[in-house]
Design brief:
about 230 residues, alpha+beta, 8 helices, 10 strands, about 45% helix
Amino acid sequence: MSFSVKVKNEVCRNIDISKNEAIAQLSAIMKVSGTMLIGGNKQFSFKVTTENPAIARVIFKILKQHFNIHTKIMVKRSNSLKKNNVYMVMITEEMGVRDVLKEVGLLKEIDNVFSLDYSIPKDIFETEDIKRAYIRGAFLGGGSISNPEKTYHLEFVTHDEDYSKELSTLINKYGLTSKVIQRKSSFVVYLKEGEQIVDLLNIIGAHASLLELENVRIMKEMRNNVN
């Protein structure tokens, strides 16, 4: 199991959160790793895709507990060389997808025309807990962290430039200095300093992973001093 998967699994175990935190977390996951599907008669649905079953379960639980939506988790084989399973959570028109998307701040309607809103909802900034929940959701949806034994690198992959800048600004409100770069068609928010990655892990509630990374940093520092 990679260090990145360990961090995400730990974050997913933190289920004792309020409805507002759950909505903020779901909003970020859906914006980073969701897709809108348009069917006939202007019927549409929304799909969230992940390779991590723990994240799929978190989405399932939030929809069930806070939206009374009993969706299904579908599993299919990935086309990638790694051959990991891909888990999909689908919200359909019959389940009330429009209400969900409006509540998480993802859908805007102008003159009966619907479109996705990739800005971060302003009510996210109401409390510290909600801010942290949003960053946590963004990490679950599009984040990864390298093995600290090799290098220090944590990133959030997004698909919208303005959104990536907003996310970077939100992260930097905690005294961090995340930056944004473009990688092919994606926009990546990243941190490369061990100390700042530790702070980010604290923000998203990955305390066991934080201690593991700190231990690695201490050992590396000791080896450098000896050398």
